Amino acid sequence: MAENPVSNGVYRHFKGGLYKVFCVAEQTETGTEYVIYKALNGDGKVYARPLELFVGLVDTEKYGNVDQRKRFTFIGLDEGHVGFNESLED
Hints:
- The structure is a single chain.
- This protein has two helices and five strands.
- With 90 residues, the chain is mostly beta strands.
- It has helices at 51-54, 60-63; strands spanning 9-13, 18-26, 33-39, 46-50, 72-77.
């Protein structure tokens, strides 16, 4: 399995958006791990995605030939310290 995402890490989604990871959280009833992350452009929403899907590969049958094999690719640490209520556009 792939490495866990880095807290405070900035990731590029295979469709091009940038996202900041805050943490990996555990669902109390099932033990399923979720990545908690925020869009750094656009609407600035906060998302929770199962860890398995976050670190997984792009479904090429569904999305065809894509440039990025991983769903999210680490591009560096957040130097601007964007919080839950901020975005790159603020």
